[in-house]
Write a structure and sequence with these properties.
Blueprint lengths: L1 E2 L2 H6 L1 H4 L3 E4 L6 H4 L1 H12 L4 E5 L25 E4 L1 H12 L23 E5 L4 E11 L9 H20 L6 E8 L7 H9 L7 E5 L10 E2 L8 H4 L12 H20 L12
Bound molecules: zinc ion.
């Protein structure tokens, strides 16, 4: 059974019983469309489906399926949930439109393994006058099993580390410390970021700026790079997220901007105003 969204599934819930539900929802924005990956299995199970499929969350496809996080809910049965390519999703929809019988055989090898230890990777350019005050920036060092994670988030983490490497090479040492963190396990629930926050909670008031980081939610002033993301979701979480997709000039510009942001704030006379912790 193919539906174009949760509303249609609710309307046609009786027809979903015992079926595989395919959410063939074209990409609008990531936030809007990723809901089908996140909670599609729960909604389909609630309607009595035996499995759910989603159209990969991407505006453009070369028949590359996209992986990503999803969640179950303790109130309904855990049914298999998989992403197929937009091309295949449309084909199935056309076949059903012609009243053809569609049989899908799911062969899925994903498993959830026990937790093991992994670490954030931290490097610093120590400040000259106020080394305990910190500008933190970084990216995540984990990636999905498909592809290489070049865009998500190799480019991000390398840009941050290049930024302090360049400052060091230029002999620029600001008053405060610039700390680059390669966050571990972002994709599977922001575990590295959360662990950093918990381990450094006592000194968060001495974090004067966070660039591209999740501790911004705790009242630490934040800055980010708004890059042209048009193509990001073409490749992200797919086998095609390889380093050839990164434009060296774009990466160099990101490095320059991050280096300037970090250096200026780390070296200012004053610190930036702080907000209260967001909830
Ligand atoms: Zn990701």
């Amino acid at each position: 059974m193919v539906v174009r969204g949760f509303d249609e599934l609710r309307e046609r819930a009786a027809a979903a019983r015992g079926k595989i539900v395919l959410f063939n929802v074209p990409f609008t924005t990531y936030g809007e469309t990723v809901r089908y990956r996140g909670t599609g299995a729960v909604e389909a199970a609630r309607a009595g489906a035996v499995a759910s499929l989603i159209r990969s969350v991407t505006p453009y496809s070369q028949r590359t399926p996209h992986t990503g996080g999803m969640a179950y809910d303790s109130t309904v049965r855990r049914i298999p949930h998989a992403a197929i390519t937009p091309e295949d999703a449309d084909m199935i929809e056309r076949m059903l439109g012609r009243r053809q019988r569609v049989v899908v055989r799911l062969v899925m090898t994903a498993r959830t393994l026990p937790d093991v230890q992994s670490r954030n990777v931290i490097g610093e350019l120590r400040g000259t006058e106020k080394p305990d005050e910190i500008v933190v920036m970084g990216g995540h060092i984990d990636s999905w099993d498909v592809g290489r994670g070049a865009m998500d988030d190799g480019g991000g983490v390398v840009a941050a580390w290049e930024a302090i490497r360049i400052l060091k090479e230029l002999g620029l040492r600001p008053r405060r410390t610039i700390r680059v963190v390669g966050w571990t396990n972002e994709e599977n629930g922001l575990r590295g970021g959360n662990a950093y926050r918990d381990a450094h909670r006592a000194e968060l008031d001495r974090h004067v700026l966070a660039i591209e980081s999740d501790i911004m939610q705790l009242g630490v002033p934040g800055m980010g790079l708004t890059v042209d993301g048009t193509r990001y979701f073409w490749y992200h979480h797919t086998d095609a997220d390889t380093v050839d997709k990164l434009d060296p000039r774009d990466v160099a510009l990101c490095v320059a901007v991050m280096a300037v942001m970090a250096y200026v704030v780390a070296d200012m006379e004053e610190t930036l105003p702080r907000g209260g912790p967001a909830r």
